[in-house]
Amino acid sequence: MKQINFLSVRHQLARPRRKRFLFKQRFSFILAAIYSLLFLLNFGVYFFLVQQGKKLDEEIASQKQKLETVTATETKIFYLKNKTRNLKQIFLTTQNHKSLIEGFFNILPAGIEVNNFTVADPGEVSFQGTAIDFNSLNQLLLNLKKGQFGGNPIYAVEIGRVFWNQEKNYSFEVKIFLYPLSKSVETDKGVVESEY
Question: The pTM is what?
């Protein structure tokens, strides 16, 4: 008796299907592994970029703080340059008019800050200043009324623009005309002739 095996034909027909199935299964596993690697790589890049962003934020904050420090230093330097320029102007004026400067400092009471000081050649001394209170301003006016300025008699005094500012100080301008350095004095209100 001969045996007929119907399964062998089925096995032969199923073998290519099985190979295709195994190939698809392996391909799916490889594809899943590649997707997993790409996901992990994407997550790693994201995490790296987040860390870099934090470092950049810290660096920006550090640079801002340094810039604020530099800005404060620049402000101080600008302030000192202006003060130095004013002192240089006063120093140059002081060399030319020493007795007038000494007289100027003798009439200044405590509480007066001088912002601008000039000495004109024909005997005109002008300055701008601020007084911390009315008593300081009043004392300056009384000192001017005495009529002496650095060994020279005061011929006329012109006081302009006295006002109370937001810092609660009195700001003012003063021009002092000296005699005998000039026989006539020209003010904003006209020419004043000397009695001498």
Answer: 0.42
